[in-house]
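In these records, each integer encodes one residue's backbone shape. Here is one protein:

___
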Amino acid sequence: MTARRNLLGELMGRLTKVPGPEPNAAVLAELKALCERVPHMTGALVASNDGLLVAHNLPAHIEPTGMAAMAAAQLSLSHRLASTAHGGGFHEVVVRGTDGSVVIYAAGWTSLTVLAAPEVNIGRLHLESRPVARVITDQLSAMTNDRKKTHARKSE
């Protein structure tokens, strides 16, 4: 059943892929390095809080823009749940399924979503992923600030 589901997902992904902007090279490098460091990690993506894909390192059977939209929806719901329950901010959410886990980390105006097989050591996954979320936040904030400065100079 799993092989058929993977094949169907891969075929659907090929049919529904929409070309988007080029992925951020620095963020993509962070995602690839993270996947290499954590055994049983199967993929990762960074998406804006409104669901726009920034970069991904996902398996072929997962459609990246759809996954980015779902991650943004889960992030929004998690923010709301955390603020309603405790009045504080949101850091991460773990979704454990029978065939693996999905973890979403808040990362500034984006989120880092990681996918892992059931065999993953969740503690190791958190240990490696949390700092990457902070690095991505810093990289994207620096890029945003540089663009604002460049735009300000052009408009003078």
Residues 14-20 have pLDDT under 50 and may be disordered. Helices lie at 2-16, 25-37, 64-86, 122-155.
